[in-house]
Amino acid sequence: MADPHSQHPAKNPSLLGGAMIIGGTIFGAGMFSLPVVMAGVWFYWALAALIFTWFCMLHSGLMLLEANLNYRIGASFSTITKDLLGNGWNILNGITVAFVLYILTYAYISGSGAVIHHTLGKMGVDFSPGLGGTLFALMVAFIVWLSTKAVSRMTTIVLGAKVLTFFMTFGGLLGHVEPVKLFNLNESNPSYLPYLLMALPFCLTSFGYHGNVPSLMKYYGKDPKRIRSCLLLGTLMALVLYIIWLVSTMGNIARPDFIPIAEQGGNIDVLVAALGSVLNSASLDLMLTIFSNFAVASSFLGVTLGLFDYLADLLNIDDSPVGRFKTALITFLPPMIGGLLYPNGFIHAIGFAGLAATVWAVIVPALLAHASRKRFGSPHYRVWGGTPLIVVVVLFGLVNAAAHILAKLNVLPVYQ
Q: Which CATH code for domain 30-47+95-207+228-358+397-408?
């Protein structure tokens, strides 16, 4: 597969290659937050929230593509935002991009520490989650410092292992699904809707891929039909995998049993341990543990490389070994300190990422499409739906932002 970051489009690049870039970016360790935060709304409403979020996030990506097509191949998100919306929006956009990448790096340090703690605990070794996350972060920092090529090779290995263990794990989990648990038949007159707003920011974070849209233009050239198909297939692939994950978890763990999982911080190790105890299968438990390790590792590598490159470009730090060491320090030190001070913040971090991602992955792309149409018309491609669809996407972003703020102010009900 050709390098998606190359300055020249590949010859006849495959549709599957681009779709895998998008699907692989979306589907990662963030999936572990979904069943925990969606326990309140449970399966049917969780399904509705995921599908509606997928629809809005797909179309915000297509709106970004529409605007991007009016610029040279290789033009960054920042270049387009500054030109169409002005410096103020570009600064806000840049701050939210950096915040999302930093907060996700912290989330994966927290998640990796929890997974290492759980994995070693099965071997009878008591290992602190904070220390585990720090050591894992140092290992990833070393790989990122070496080169982008080293990250690419490691990501390929980890991604292959993740896909393999995914099918081995979920084939087993689906075989244990109980309809009584999945459809919550044991609870009389359960209440779901009050918890819907609480879950939305986590759904939004679970469909973040928008930074890859300019990369796909480098990969395919100005071919909107091909890129649109990549976005559709890649996001649909992630949606299907999320639904399988919800069926696998909610069909094995009863709704009330998610309350103690959330009370313990909702971290990855707690959910994996709960699934393992319900399944009562040593081989499945082992597969789930291995899969969770690879899921965290692949997400961690992808996010930290993105943050590393972003900071190097922003701060104009050279690519020498000393320069890369400086960038690595700025990239990893703040979230590592956070991971040591607050090792169980995975769920909270994912929620905060949803708040910031609302700006750069939802609202800004919709505004870019609107401004692009006013200035250029639509010479290459126009997203269907006109202004009403732009309004729907912006409203979706504003509702997500409001939901997160209200949740932090303890205004929204919590399932407990």
A: 1.20.1740.10
